[in-house]
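Weekly modeling sync, notes
Attendees: AB, CL, MP (scribe)

Item 1: holo prediction request
CL wants a bound-state model with nicotinamide-adenine-dinucleotide before deciding which constructs to order. AB pointed out that an apo prediction alone won't tell us much about the pocket. Agreed to run with the ligand included and paste results into these notes for async review.

Input as submitted:
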Amino acid sequence: MKISVIGTGYVGLVTGTCLAETGNEVICVDIDKTKVDKMRNGEVPIYEPHLDVLFERNIKANRLKFTTSLAEGLAHGEIIFLALPTPEDEDGSADLSYVLSVSEEIGKKISNYKVIVDKSTVPVGTADKVRAIIAENAKCEFDVVSNPEFLREGFAVDDFMKPERIVVGSSSERATTLMKKLYSPFVRSGNPIIVMDEKSAELTKYASNSFLATKITFMNEIANYCERVGADVDMVRAGMGTDSRIGRRFLFPGIGYGGSCFPKDVKALKKAGKDADYDFKILKSVIEINSAQKTILLPKIDAYFNDDLKGKTIAVWGLAFKPETDDIREAPSIAIMDALLEKGAILQVFDPEAMPNISKRFGDKLTYSESMYSALEEADALLICTEWSIFRTPDYNKLKELLRNPVIFDGRNLYNINDMETEGFTYISIGRKAVN
Ligand code: NAD
C-alpha cells in the first residue's frame, strides 16, 4: 500500500519505518528541513533502540523516503497518517493547531480518495473537526479515522511491530477495511484490532495514559506513607502486584512520571472534562502529587547538607525522563536539578543518551561527564533520577573511592537496602527506610 506519514518524531518515524518493513511504500513528511536532510543521509534523528536497522533496510529497499513537501506526501499516499505534535496549551488543553493547519492543507491539496488517520493524541471530537476542515476545500471523497498510538519510547519498534491491540475509530466501512488490511501483518499472533467510533477511540488513549499516570501516582503516595510508618514499599509492591487484578507493572515508586505524553495528556483530559462540565477530581490530585513528587528528595538532600547546598557538588545519574530514550520532556531530573541549582549546588551529570538534549536546556549551568564514574569525581553525593540498566550494578568500591562522601539519593530505588548497609553507604530512596 502507499502510505504517507506527516510528522516524523518518535511516533511518525517509527510508524513510517515499521509500515515500510511490512512492504508498504512510505513517504515521511516533516517541516524540519535539518531533520529531513539527516534522514535522507541515512541518519536516524532520535535515539530509539532497534530503529536504525529497520530504517537502513527500508531506505535501501526504496520503501522509505523523506520530504519536506506536504504536496508530495499527499500525492503519494492513499492512507495519510498525522503524527503531529499536540503539546500542552496555556490552559492545559491539547494544542490542535498543528493537526488542524495540516488538515486545512490536506483539504486544499487532495484530488483523489484518501484516508486521513489521526495518530496524534487528540481530545474527543477532533476527528469531527478534522473532517469539517478538510471538507471545506476537498473536491474528492475522503475518510477520517482515529488510530491512537500506544507505543512506548524505548520499546517503540517492538510495540509497533507486536502491538497488544490496535484501536481504530472509524465510521466508514471503506476506511476500516483499508486499516485492517494495513495492520493485518502486525496482529498475526491474534491480538485484536478493536474497531469503534472515533470519539471512543480518541478517549481510549487519554483514558489509558491517565490511568497509568494514576497508578504510578498511587504507588508514590503509598511510598510516601511507608516512610512515615516504617513500612517498605518494595514489600508492599510485591504483595500487591501478585494480585492479578492489580498486576506487577507500573507499581514502581519514584520521583514521578514525566515525558512527552503522561503530563500533557492528564492535563488535557482534565481540561476537556472541565469544558464538558465534568470535574475530574482524581486527575487534579494526580497532577498535584506528581509535581511535588519530582522534588521529593530535595528536603532530604538539603537536610543531609545541613541546609547549605551552596558549593556542594552533586553527581547526577540519569537525565532522560525514563531509560532507553534521549527524550527529556518534563523529565523529573529537570525539576530537581533546577531546584538544586537554585540552592547553589554544582551538578556533574551523566546520561547515556540524553546529554545533548539536556545541554540545550541547561547550557553551561551543568558539568557534563564522559562516563557514569567520572561524574562522581570529587562529588559530595550521588543523585539518581533515571533507572538506566548500567546504573543497576555499579562497582561499589569505585563509587566509594570517587565520591567525597559515600552518599546516594536514589529516586528510582535501584539498590538493595541490605547491600547499601553492608557497603557502608548513606542511602536515601523512596518509600524505604533510610540507611545512615
Ligand atoms: P515529536 O515532537 O517527536 O514529533 C513531531 C514531528 O512533527 C516533529 O518532527 C516536527 O518537526 C513535525 N512537524 C511539526 N509540524 C509539522 C508540519 N506542519 N508538517 C510536518 N511535520 C511537522 O512528537 P511525537 O512524540 O512523535 O508525538 C506525536 C503525537 O503522538 C503527539 O500527539 C503525542 O502525544 C502522540 N504520542 C506520542 C508518543 C510518544 O511516546 N512520543 C506515544 C503515543 C502517542
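Recorded for review: The domain at 298-428 is CATH 3.40.50.720 (Rossmann fold).
Action items: CL to compare against the apo run; MP to circulate these notes.
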